[in-house]
Amino acid sequence: MKAIDYEAYLYATFDDEQAQEKWQNVLDFTGWLKEKGNGGRDADSPEKPLIELTQMGALMSMLEGRDQEPDAVRLSTLHAAKALEFGHVFMVGVEEGILPHRGDPDAPAELHAQRIEEERRLMYVGITRAQRSLTLTWCKKRKRARDSVPCEVSRFIKEMRLDEADALPADHEIMTPQDRLAGLKALLQKPRAA
Asked: For residue range 5-43, what is the model confidence (pLDDT) as tens digits?
């Protein structure tokens, strides 16, 4: 906060009462981070890394006011969405290099396989958050610096075999979105062959 001179910014931007209230919120938040990050005052409390604290903060803010169903879009990481459900879920960027993340190319094959399985579980978490609809998106190409780079759809989408489900015989019963979502969940729960 000192490096960016945030307190001075608040007092220059807002009236004294608002600035003091906002600065106190910052102090309370940083105090909470220090207490939780250092294991709290209780010697039995384990120290929590910053990433875990920020995810906890994001989850707390998502849960806050859940009783009033606001007309708003909520942005969340897959990790923070665990144990929550939403009417409509949009998973954006479901492509190789993003989900699953490209990871360390020099990592041993065993670690690479473990990482892919963990990311497959995250994909399942995202899919199972949807109550009424699920939309998965990916790009054919992305702009990186000045170049246009081709992208490949995620292996997880390929594993769902959606193209096979779309090529059903004409006399096949039409699936509702709920039936299709249940089918996708079942496919992701099947144990993988080695």
From this structure: 889 989 998 899 999 999 998 898 888 778 777 655 555
Question: Alpha carbon 97 to chain centroid distance?
Answer: 15
Backbone angles phi, psi at 97, to 5 degrees: 100, -20
Rg (CA), the chain: 22
pTM of the model: 0.51
State how far the Cα of 74 lies from the Cα of 152, in Å rounded to an integer. 27
The domain tally of the chain equals 1
Residue 2 lies in a domain: no
* Domain range enclosing 185: 85-194
CATH of the domain at 123: 3.30.160.800
Distance (Å, rounded) from C-alpha 79 to C-alpha 122? 7
125 assigned to some structural domain = yes
Which single residue is written with the structure tokens 């923070």? 80
